[in-house]
Each structure stands twice: as C-alpha cells, then as structure tokens.
Write a structure and sequence with these properties.
alpha/beta; TIM Barrel; 8-stranded parallel beta barrel; DeoC/FbaB/LacD_aldolase; EC 4.1.2.4; lyase; cytoplasm
Length: 236
C-alpha cells in the first residue's frame, strides 16, 4: 500500500487517500473501533488512527494480499509531557502490536522555552525505537506556537529523522490546524517531510484548503461528512 498523495485530489476518492480516519476519544470502545475500520475501508481512506490500547486490530486484506488500509496510533498523547524513554517504549510496543505509523506529541513547553535541542532529542528517541519502515509523525501543537517556534520545531523533527510534521492533537485549548500553520510547516520542510493537518478540519472546504496549503495527510474524525462535501464543481 503506497502513499499516493503527491498530486492534488480531484474528487472524494482522491481526497480519501489523504485521510487518517481518526478515533481518539477517551470513551471510545472496541465496537467503535471496529465500526471505524469498516467505515474507513468503505470510504477508501489511507489509514485509521486509534489509541494504542486498542492494538492489535484486524484489518481486511485485499485481493493483492495487502491490507485495505494502514493502522496508525499515537504516542505521548495528548500532552507530550512524558519522558522520552516512556514515549519510545510506548511507540515500540505499538509497532509490535501492528501499528504501521506512530504520531508522537512533542513537549510543547520545551519548545516554548526555546529548548529545541531537547525537542529534537525527544523525537530522536522515538525514532530510534521505531525505525523505518514505520512512519513517524511529530505533533507540534502549532496553534500554541509562534511562527518562529513552528519553524524551529519542524527543523528539529527533520533533524531527528521524522517522516511527517503534524499540526495538532485536536485536544489543545489553543486550537487545531490552520491554513497559515500548514503553509509555514510545508515551506519549512520543503517536501522532505510530509505535513499532516489535524484538528478542526470538519468540511470539504477546510480539507481542500489544507491540501492547497501543503498538507499531504489529513487527520479527520468526521471523514464521511467531509468527503460527502466534495462536489464536481469544487474546482478539483
């Protein structure tokens, strides 16, 4: 299964290939996760993103023997205020339990204090625990950071070997993704890393604006409604 988000989506099916279909609510049940996977397969999304305690999960396999979608999980979620070795252990266990991708949260306070070397070391610890081919995404909580801090954290993520930078957990009171933050993150990583827009992306217009700004992946919980809003006259 390949990540084919190198060109702009032209329809709902194309946009679906950008989507990590997400369920991270604390009250989620195993039945909810099973429904999420079934819906994700029906919608044709790239992956589902679930809490690590639900791993492992069963995913349907296509005629080619490949999974119908990939499985992503989170690490150090949602505060990022975990010791690096704890994040690394959590990520490693998730991969053993079948996760293909891990979305880790940085220590946002360290970034606010300008301790970007510490941010890099935190990311590097998780990267070492889950080397390629596992995809590592770094959640930076862009709404809580200044532009200068966003740039510095993205550079730290790249230096530490991450595959993506991601805007938000969706749980921070400062807010979720913004077009401005996505554009700045995309400009900073220059195509060398992917950019995931997540948090508050609730409409087709929101999703397409994020892609236009440089997002190569979208974290959506209301995926069906977003894809239903993509119409032939939307300009894509």
């Amino acid at each position: 299964m390949s990540d084919d988000t190198t060109t702009a989506p032209h329809d709902a099916a194309g946009l679906a290939r950008y989507v990590d279909h997400t369920l991270l609510k604390p009250e989620a049940t195993r039945a909810d996760v099973e429904a999420l996977i079934a819906e994700g397969v029906a919608l044709g999304v790239y992956s589902v993103c679930i809490s690590p305690s639900f791993l492992p999960v069963e995913v349907p396999v296509g005629l080619d023997g490949a999974p119908a979608l990939l499985v992503a999980t989170v690490c150090g979620f949602p505060s990022g205020k975990h010791r690096s070795e704890v994040k690394a252990a959590e990520a490693a266990r998730s991969v053993l339990d079948g996760a293909h991708e891990v979305d880790m949260v940085i220590d946002v306070g360290a970034a606010k204090e300008g301790r970007f070397a510490d941010v890099e070391a935190d990311i590097a610890a998780v990267r070492a625990a889950v080397p390629a081919p596992t995809v590592l995404k770094v959640i930076i909580e862009s709404a809580a950071l200044s532009d200068e801090e966003i740039v510095a954290v993205c550079r730290a993520a790249e230096a530490a070997g991450a595959d993506f930078v991601k805007t938000s957990t969706g749980f921070h009171p400062a807010g979720g993704a913004s077009v401005h933050a996505v554009r700045l993150m995309a400009q900073t990583v220059g195509g060398r890393l992917g950019v995931k827009a997540s948090g508050g992306v609730r409409s087709a217009a929101d999703a397409l604006a994020m892609v236009e700004a440089g997002a190569t992946r979208l974290g959506l919980s209301g995926t069906a409604a977003v894809l239903a809003g993509v119409t032939a006259d939307a300009g894509y």
